[in-house]
Each structure stands twice: as structure tokens, then as C-alpha cells.
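Work Package 4 report. The design task specified in the project plan requires that, given a folded chain encoded as C-alpha cells, an amino acid be chosen for each position. We show below one input record used in the internal validation round.
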């Protein structure tokens, strides 16, 4: 069963044709949709995420101006500064959470987009209430970006 995330009406799931949407009979909310080109969409999103990750790591996010001297800091220079200042554990944590993990997830999506499928709103409301995702991986164990390994 699929619960509408807007009005909680339960629906019986069925296979969708490419480009078709399943809508709630009560409120008209979209329950599920079948993408025409899921691999191309995944590649496009992975490329956009890579561009944004590069921009976030290239441009400074902090600028300090004191007595006419300006100092700019990027994420990488912050990690290096923490490492040199004796906070190696914090430097490793920040490097992992801001550069390594997002980069690895994007790389995984870009290298093998057919290995993942996106949970396109199906079972979302039901899974939050019942702890079931229609036989798929539980929400807490999903891969980044809502990716679910194919079985």
C-alpha cells in the first residue's frame, strides 16, 4: 500500500508506463512517477553536484578584515589550519564531511548511475509511519541522495 503524503489516503501500487504519474484519487497529489531517462537524469544531477562541490571548495567562505589586512579562508585552508594548530581529529572530521564523503558519493553516482534508483515519492509517507519501505532498504540505511541499491 502507498499512502498519499498530503492526505494519507491509502492506494494500491501498480506498474507505471514511462512518463506516467500515479495521482491520489482524493487530493490529486503525485504518489509516484516513472522517469523516461533515469540514468541521464542521475548523470545530470551528479555533474551539477560535482560543479557545486568544486565551487564550494574553491571560493572562500570566510573573510576577515582587520586594520586594513584581509584574510580569506576556504574549506581546505581551514582544514590545513586546524591540522597545523593541533586539532587533527577536528580537521579529519571536517575534511571527511565536507570534501571526501560528498565527493565519493558524487563519484559513485557518476561512475555507475545504473547501480542506483531513486525513491520517487513512493512509499514515503507509509514508510515514515510503519517503518516499511515496500521491501526496500530502510530509510535510515539509504545511501546519499536517497539512492537505494537495486536487488
Amino acid at each position: 500500500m502507498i499512502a498519499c503524503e498530503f492526505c494519507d489516503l491509502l492506494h494500491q501500487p501498480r506498474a507505471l508506463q514511462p512518463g506516467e504519474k500515479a495521482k491520489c484519487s482524493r487530493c490529486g497529489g503525485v504518489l509516484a512517477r516513472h522517469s523516461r531517462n533515469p540514468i541521464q537524469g542521475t548523470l545530470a544531477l551528479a555533474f551539477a553536484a560535482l560543479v557545486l562541490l568544486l565551487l564550494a571548495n574553491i571560493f572562500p567562505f570566510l573573510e576577515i578584515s582587520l586594520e586594513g589586512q584581509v584574510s580569506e579562508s576556504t574549506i581546505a585552508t581551514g582544514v590545513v589550519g586546524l591540522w597545523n594548530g593541533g586539532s587533527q581529529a577536528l580537521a579529519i572530521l571536517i575534511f571527511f564531511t565536507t570534501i571526501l564523503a560528498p565527493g565519493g558519493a558524487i563519484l559513485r553516482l557518476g561512475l555507475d548511475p545504473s547501480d542506483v534508483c531513486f525513491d520517487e515519492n513512493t512509499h514515503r509517507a507509509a514508510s515514515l509511519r510503519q517503518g516499511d519501505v515496500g521491501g526496500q532498504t530502510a530509510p535510515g540505511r539509504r545511501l546519499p541522495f536517497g539512492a537505494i541499491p537495486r536487488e
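Residues 37-116 form one domain. Validation will be extended to a larger panel in the next phase.
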